[in-house]
Amino acid sequence: MLSVVVASWRRDPVVLRNAEVAHDAASTMKVAVLAALYRSGMDLDVAVPVVNRFRSVTGATYGNSRAADSDPLPWDRLGRTATVRWLAGRMVTHSSNLATNLCLEQVGHEAVARVWQRAGVTGSASPRGIEDYAGRAAGVHNRVTALDLVRLLESLKPELLRLLEGNVHRVDLAAGLPPGTRLSGKNGWFPGLRHSVGVVHPPDAAPYTLAVCYTGPLASGDDTDDPAARLLARISAGVWRRRHLLTR
Hints:
- Keywords: Hydrolase.
- GO terms for molecular function: beta-lactamase activity.
- Pfam families: Beta-lactamase2.
- InterPro entries: Beta-lactam/transpept-like, Beta-lactam_cat, Beta-lactam_class-A.
- This is Serine hydrolase.
- The chain contains 9 helices and 11 strands.
- It is an alpha+beta fold and about 250 residues long.
- It has a single domain (about 1-245), classed as DD-peptidase/beta-lactamase superfamily (Beta-lactamase, 3-Layer(aba) Sandwich).
- Strands 2-1-11-10-9 form a 5-stranded antiparallel sheet, sandwiched between helices. It has a two-stranded antiparallel ribbon with strand order 3-8. Strands 4-7 form a two-stranded antiparallel sheet.
- A hairpin with a 2-residue loop joins strand 9 and strand 10.
- Helix 1 (about 30-40) packs antiparallel against helix 3, helix 1 (about 30-40) runs parallel beside helix 4 and helix 1 (about 30-40) packs across helix 5 (about 110-120).
- The longest helix is centred in the C-terminal third of the chain and has 15 residues, at about 225-240.
- The protein is globular, with a radius of gyration of 17 Å.
- About 45% of the residues are buried.
């Protein structure tokens, strides 16, 4: 299943392909957690314990796998503390699973649900933490649609979009753009899926939003050499070549 949405920034989409089909959210849900934190009013510079024990939506407990995490730095702080601001940054720039669940513990799932609702989504939700396999087995799933991912980015303030420019995983949408092109975005991947959404800022055209969600056998789950990532890069390159046409 391939879903694609292309839209000039905060304007009606010009491309809608399977735009409202739900996919497993993977790490794209971390954008909603980021927004919930920054809208909560909490002191983001408070230090919190770095632990690897979280409460499942089933009431049980679970932890993250260090081997499955793309960011080693939060793991190096196990047993110590880190600020919420630092954890939130690692969550979206390096896609840390451990940092994500620590942030969720601080803000709560209800606040994340309000972020989705405020964005006006119709088919997306993220009611459980990363690697809450007991919750998934009980039928609680994090879902996104390509259209809702566009709506989510459109609901963010400039400060959060600037944070998303720091995403270091640039093998899909970013790989289809000329080097140095500004991209505020987030991706997610594991075996069987590869998603990415971002706001592209061309120097010679109006900004536009592109969301691509792919679920299928091309997705190897590799964070650097994924055939599905190359597919997303080709789509991104095709949209870039037509960037001057998007506002017509």
